[in-house]
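Notes, Module 5: Reading structure tokens.

Key idea: the token line is not a picture. It is a compressed description, and you learn to read it the same way you learned to read a sequence, by spotting repeated patterns. We will look at two proteins. The first is printed below with its tokens.
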Amino acid sequence: MNFDRVIAVRTSKTVYRDGDLVIKVFGEDFAKSDILNEALNQARVEENTTLHIPKIKEVTSIEGKWAIVSDFIKGKTLAQLMQEHPEKKEEYLNLFVDLQMQVHAMRVPLLNRLREKLDRQIEDADLDATTRYDLHTRLDSMPRHNKLCHGDFNPSNIIITEDGTPYILDWSHAAQGNASADVARTYLLFWLDGDLSGAERYLDLFCEKSHTAKPYIQKWMPIVAAAQSTKGNPKEREFLLSWVNVVDYQ
């Protein structure tokens, strides 16, 4: 494999291109089970849906580090296109929401349950016992669904090919559960990226297209924020934990 061309660097991950392949190399601190679970998630989505996603080719070890090899998808991310063509942002946001709704229309019954994952993450959050109890109670009261949820659906994980085909990347957080939790996560990702107007427009579009009441999605935000606060840098954790104490929306 050729590791001369780096196409992305993330926390404890480096992504290389080798011809028609992409090699994602994980840091030594990643557990074997996490890498295998990410590959399994992607394989299950590939096998059980009609979505355009890169196909897994191999899971291997390179110089003591785990790596996932998959198809290289040539194109630009939706985030790049939004930056290059701000006048088309509304068009791109519409496409983005339509894609997420396509994801939610799919069923992948062997994926982990999102509700169980959120429960575990809330328990690990840096919160007092009373707040954790309240969040667990709120989560338990939310409707139980089995829709495919991406878990990290944001414009940088969508590649538009030269012929206009959208591919959805990075299925490491995929689970089955309530789509509104997935939407709450995406809304918070826009905030973390500093795009507050994009966050609000995204939420308006999703609610309009899916006929979902906005307060229903907003009720998920403290739950999702608390769960996500167990990851990321201190600044992100501080921001996410600030959402935990948001009162119920009227």
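Here is the second protein, with the sequence above and the tokens below, as before.
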Amino acid sequence: MSSFIKFLGTAGGRYVVARQLRASGGTYISANGQNIMLDPGPGALVKCAKSKPPIDATALNAIILSHLHIDHSNDVNILIDAVTGGGHRKGGVLFAPREALEGDDAVVFKYLRDFLEDIVVLEAERNYKIGDIEFSTSIKHQHTAETYGIKFNINGHNISFIADTRFFPELIDSYKGSDMLIVNVVSHTLPEKINIKHLCLDDVKEIIKKVKPSKAVITHFGMTMLKAKPWILAEQLSNELGIEITAASDGMTIEL
């Protein structure tokens, strides 16, 4: 059985998501008999159905939310409903930060929660398991919501997803040892006087240079990244750093 990652959306930032200049369905991971949806943003269910070949949303084993923001969590409830047949069967495990499950901004409907096999609260630098797939969380990110990166161990390879965050030096140590690094880069550049808690291209360059993965993928593009043509930026970074760097596109599949 093949193992792969499929990008159901590469949109980042409100403008790109609202106008669907790139899709925003999140990332689908299929490995070792486990089907996982990471950060199912707006359109995740539709992207599953229209994928070639189609992805069966009712066969998901797990859903992971890196944080509660709507471009990362919008379709979590409809996916829970799909996995569990509207509550007619127990199914699936949800992994999410506590903030996504409790308080005024909780994003998971209470009536759906008992449908799941389990709900696991994510905390910083902890180990988790989905079937035979192990993953861990990163250091807590510096974002406007409780956010963690996700680091999978799949067939002996460390595949890390750096979710939304501003740059801080400890990020680099948290992701060292990654064989593949998939990084959300919303902005091409960041204005010095504006406190935006997202990575820009220079931040990503610094992270990749010091983590030294075998391969890196940039995704989750805001408007300034789209205008700068991320596929060209990725090629330039590859040539400069001597590391294979790819700009994700909607529907792109990476075989593992």
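Summary for the second protein:
- Residues 230-241 form the longest helix (12 residues).
- DSSP finds ten helices and 14 strands in the chain.
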